[in-house]
Write a structure and sequence with these properties.
about 110 residues, mainly alpha, globular
């Protein structure tokens, strides 16, 4: 993710891509995702960390995975927090760590 891009914004670089990933992984339709934790607006305003954890658990196919537990512990202080409370640098770090784990479970 190019965090130094002059037009970087949480919605476009994190919320929308995470919503799209969730739609694909869970098979959600446009209508079913609109008001849930996986909607880009919800991700932006408080469900970001919760949504990443849910996606990782789904990708792990119900396996107990220590790395997901550690991810959850590491970012638990941001559960329920919106983009302003998380901040750009923390959001990028969380999303980068999420993508590393995502890659592990999609190989």
């Amino acid at each position: 993710m190019d965090k130094n891009h002059q037009n970087w914004n949480f919605h476009g670089y994190i919320a929308v891509p995470l919503e799209i990933k969730a739609r694909n992984i869970f098979g959600f339709s446009d209508k079913s995702v609109r008001k849930g934790i996986f909607a880009a607006d919800s991700i932006e305003n408080g469900s970001f960390v919760k949504a990443t954890i849910a996606v990782l658990r789904k990708l792990a196919e119900d396996k107990s995975d220590y790395e997901i537990d550690e991810f959850e512990k590491a970012y638990s202080e941001y559960i329920g927090k919106g983009k302003l409370d998380i901040g750009k640098e923390n959001a990028i770090k969380i999303y980068d760590d999420f993508e590393k784990l995502e890659e592990k479970f999609t190989k």
